[in-house]
Amino acid sequence: MSDLLGKVTGDQDIFKKLGSKIPGLSEFIERQNYRAADKLLRETIADHFEALYKRISALQTDFISAGEIMYVDDLEKGALKLRTFIDKIRRATYGYSGMFDATKVNEEELARVYQYDSALLDLEGEVGRAIDNVEASMGSDGLPAAIRNLTSKAQDCLNAFNQRDEIMQQGEQSQ
Length: 175
What we know:
Blueprint: H1 2-10, H2 14-19, H3 25-65, H4 72-90, H5 107-137, H6 143-173
Helix pairs in contact: 1-3, 3-4, 3-5, 4-6, 5-6
């Protein structure tokens, strides 16, 4: 978290640095920094998963070329789940509320959401290994199980996102 937050705070202009010395305004600027870091992290997550999605699309083409059309629909289930996850991450609620908003998200909640977003990157490796397994299983009896595993990992991504969404909603309800 400190890496992205440090990048965001390091890029502040002189007015933000001066404003951070004003009581009350410094908390607003800190929340703004968390918001920017959260957005940057979510864009990174979405970009990483976009690359995985493209690998699945390439696999579908390979299946068609190899005459294994019967697996394309099964693989599409996993691809659609991953696409939904990517779209949700890109459009997710920012871990932040404005200075004058009725609902405020405090810094502890922002840090928790940011840490949760960081954990979403761990799922990238799991999905990547599931795709590797599908590639390795092409032409074998293990292919249907490999595709089911990939679909399951893609569903895990959606479930993880939904838990993140619950954290955001709990933060809004506690205010």
